[in-house]
Amino acid sequence: MILSNSTKTLLCQEAMKQYDLEYSKVSFIRHSENLTYRIFSKSKDESYLLRIHFPLSGIIDKEWLDEKIINSELLWLKSLSETTDIRVQIPVANKLGNLVTKVNHDGNEIFCTLLTWIVGIVRYEDDTYTSLQAEKLGSLLAKIHRHSENWNLPKDFDRPTYNLNSLQEDFEKLKNINNELLIFDKESELSIQKAIDKIGVFLEKDKKLNNWGLIHADLCENNYILNEEYLSPIDFSLCSFGSYTYDITVSLLHLKSELWSYFFKGYRKYRSINNNLKESIEAYIIAALIGPWAFHSTNPEEQKWLKSSITSCLNKNIPQFLNNESYFFSKYNIDIE
User: Fold this and answer.
1) What is the C-alpha separation between 87 and 216, in angstroms, rounded?
2) Spatial distance between the Cα atoms of 200 and 198, rounded to a whole number of angstroms
3) For site-directed labelling of 157, which of 149, 285, 311, 323 has its Cα 20 to 30 A away?
4) Between the CA of residue 121 and those of 222, 231, 234, what are the distances in Å?
5) 3-state DSSP call for residue 254?
6) Which element (helix H / strand E) includes 189?
7) Domain ends where: 117, 141, 159?
8) Could you tell me if 199 and 320 are in contact, meaning their C-beta atoms sit under 8 angstroms apart?
9) Does residue 86 contact residue 140 with C-beta atoms inside 8 Å?
C-alpha cells in the first residue's frame, strides 16, 4: 500500500501522542522497510528516531512486523546500552511503559518504536576509510558477539534465524521473480541450489561449534556512525540468530580487501575465531549475496545491478566454490589467520 503524505504525517502524530515528549520539529527520513522520522526535542538539545513499522509493499516478510519480534530487537539494544560500552540507540518507552507503541490505520494495527538519535556521520557519507576505522569496526562486531554469547535471553525473546531454511526461502523468492526477469537459466539455477546446499553444511558446523548466536546481520557501511573515530552500530532491525562468521562476512564485503587484516586485528582483541576461517568466509560471501538478490528483486531500479551481480557470481564464485577451490583468497594475499 502506498501512503499519502498526509497519512504519513497523521501516523507520525498519532504515534508521538503516546510518548511523554514535547517536540519542536519533525523531519521525514525515508520510507522503505520502515517509515522513519527524526524527532527534535523541544526542551532539550536532543533528537530521536521514530520508526513506523509499515514497509513498502513486498519489501520484507510479515514475520519482521510481529510485535514480539520487534520488542525483542529493542530488548537487545537495551541490554547492549546497559551492560557494554557500545554506543547504541536506546529504546524509549511510551507513556504505558511499553517499548512498542500501537496506532490504528484503516482498521489495522501498526507498530511504532522510538529510539535515541546518535550524532555523527553515517559511514557511507564519508569518502575516506582508514585502517583505524576498519580495526574499530572489527572490535565493535567482536563486542557485539561477545555480549550475544554471554547474554541470558529474556523470557519470550524471539528473533528470526538465519539458517539453511531462510536461505532457501530467499532463493525461492528469487526464482519466482526470475520467471519474469529471466536472469538465469535452469542450469544456473541448479548451480545456485548446489551452492546453497553446501553453504548449509557450514551453517550447521558453526551451530555445532557454538559459533552461533544473536548477530546484527547487516553491519555494513549504511549501518554504523562515525563520531571522532568512535563507531556506533545502528539499524538492528534485521538482527537474528545465526553464524558469527556470517556476520563478519557481511561487514567484510563492504571493506576493501587491504583493510581486512586490520578488521581482524580489532576483532581478535575481544573474541577468538574458529579455524577454517577462509573457507567459511568464501561460503558466506555467496550466502550474503542471495539475501540482497531476493530483497531487491522486486525493485525495477535494482534489476540492472541484480542481473550483473548474479551473472558475476555464477561465472566467478560458484563454480570454484562447488569444486572446493578458493575463488577469493587465492587471488588476494590477505593475512586474516
Assistant:
1) 14
2) 5
3) 285
4) 10, 10, 12
5) coil
6) helix 186-208
7) 117
8) no
9) yes
- Report yes or no: 114 and 101 within 8 Å, Cβ to Cβ: yes
Give the separation between CA 279 and CA 329, rounded to whole angstroms: 9
From 117, 133, 150, the end of a domain falls on: 117
CA distance 323 to 279: 12
Helix (H) or strand (E) holding 69: helix 67-83
Cα–Cα distance measured from residue 92 to residue 98, given in angstroms and rounded to the nearest whole number = 8
Chain segment 144-191, per-residue pLDDT in tens: 999 999 999 999 999 999 999 999 999 999 999 899 889 999 999 999
- Using a cut of 0.90, tell me whether the model's pTM lies above it: yes
| Amino acid identity for residue 220 in this structure | C
H-helix segments, 104-259: 131-150, 164-181, 186-208, 244-252
Contact yes or no for 71/51 (Cβ under 8 A): no
Helix (H/G/I), strand (E/B), else coil: 272: coil
The Cα–Cα gap between 278 and 328 comes to 9
Residues in the chain: 337
Q: What is the CATH number of the domain that holds 305?
A: 3.90.1200.10
Helix (H) or strand (E) segment spanning residue 39: strand 35-41
Number of domains in the chain: 2
For 240-290, the pLDDT digits (tens) are 999 999 999 999 998 999 999 999 999 999 999 877 899 999 999 999 999
Residue 142 phi/psi, 5-degree rounding, is: -65, -40
Summarize the chain as % helix, strand, coil (round to 5): 45, 15, 35
| Strand partners for 161 | 241
Largest Cα span, the chain: 63
**Residues near 327 by Cβ (< 8 Å), separated by ≥ 6?**
282, 316, 317, 320, 321
Quick one: which H or E segment has residue 304? helix 303-312
Exposure of 75 by Cβ count < 10 A (0-12 exposed, 13-18 middle, 19+ buried)?
middle
Q: Do 149 and 218 belong together in one domain?
A: yes
